[in-house]
Amino acid sequence: MEKHILILTTTSDFLGKFERENVKILQQMGYIVHYAANMKEPYYVSTEENLRQMGIQTHHIEIARSPFLMKENQKAFRQLLHLIHSFPIQAIHCHTPVGGLLGRLAGKFCPDKNLIVIYTAHGFHFYKGSPLFNRMVYYPVEKKLARYTDILIVINEEDYRATQKFRIKKDGHVYKIPGVGLDRDLFRPFSKERRNFLRKQFGIDQDIFFLLSIGELNENKNHQIVLEALAKMKQEQKDLSKLKYGICGDGFFREQIQQQIKEFGLENTVTLYGYCDRISEILGCCDATIFPSRREGLGMAGLESLSMGIPVIASDNRGTREYMEHGKNGFVYRYDDVDGFIEGIETLRNLNSEKKKEMKLFCTDSVKSFDKQYATAVMKRIYSGVDRRIEQEFHEEKRKNQCHHGCI
Questions:
Q1: By C-alpha distance, which of 302, 297, 322 is closest to 313?
Q2: Taking the complete model, does pTM exceed 0.85, yes or no?
Q3: Which end of the chain is more exposed for a tag (fewer CB within 10 A), N or C?
Q4: Where are the chain's structural domains?
Q5: Which pLDDT score, from 0 to 100, does residue 343 have?
Q6: What string of H, E and C letters represents the secondary structure of 259-294?
Q7: What CATH architecture is 192-370?
Q8: Which CATH class is domain 3-181+371-407?
Q9: Residue 399, pLDDT above cutoff 80
């Protein structure tokens, strides 16, 4: 029996960032893996050829990030249904809010295919402190779609509690996993020699306090609050000559951030590195990371930083609450707390060597439970259960056909 599974997301780079381990599991189980996404998004990176080299069959659909772009998403839904009927797809694993919407509707509107639908919620858009609009719109939609979901996977405790009020499809299950899994072999503390070598490569002097953010340049990642903090520090005549702030990422807010850097006079302090594929290397160069996101499902970049022994300054959200301990592996503030972020930056850059060593050890210890072995173990169990159902349904259908032909 030939087995096909479809991974559905919004943007083309999602699989390479978050689903590599899952693809390996599925391919080891004998599945042909299809990947449907908008292959033109994000505009600043092309991943389609790399995906094909992984043995994945890619399919472009006109799916849009916003659920309110109705025209594009209606077209994407028609393309998705055509794709499902063009191949013997037996299961869909969908991600992102719009991918989850279209994937689960496809499961409902393809009853003849008897699709098994898996949805991983990387952070519901309704959350503690979210705008009323999010709670009024996204919550009832997710609750309704849960009825068409065989397996619902979440990555933080707040979302897991929310799912307890959902009615999952008959015989369905809800799982909580530690994100996509942390590669602690790749993200581990560097030796002093390695760190110094890489800092030289990136043009960072050894006596510089290097602060780093990683994330797409968009409203949610909230990089602007760090710029405001640095501008206030400059206004208060705090010495920024030995401080550098770097941002790894690209996106629609790039021009806005560039303009803000110029307006604040931070050209000598802030560097935009653009899209980076050497994340572990640049992380290993820094003294601290800062992630001021308005919301996070978990925040893998924060976990990767801690795994390398690098303290994190983070905004308080459901994702960072999974692993941050204020004063131990970094500092936590409201996403709009300029003075709080200044406090975190100043505290970390003035730590004595003994406190730095103590914090570094706590950082690495604090993320052990997020090791990829745990997420992989759960995903293997989930996919094995899906595989058994597919095998059973295949043999049941085969038995019915044999009985039908025998009766004739």
A1: 302
A2: yes
A3: C
A4: 3-181+371-407, 192-370
A5: 98
A6: HHHHHCCCCCCEEEEECCCCHHHHHCCCCEEEECCC
A7: 3-Layer(aba) Sandwich (3.40)
A8: alpha beta
A9: no
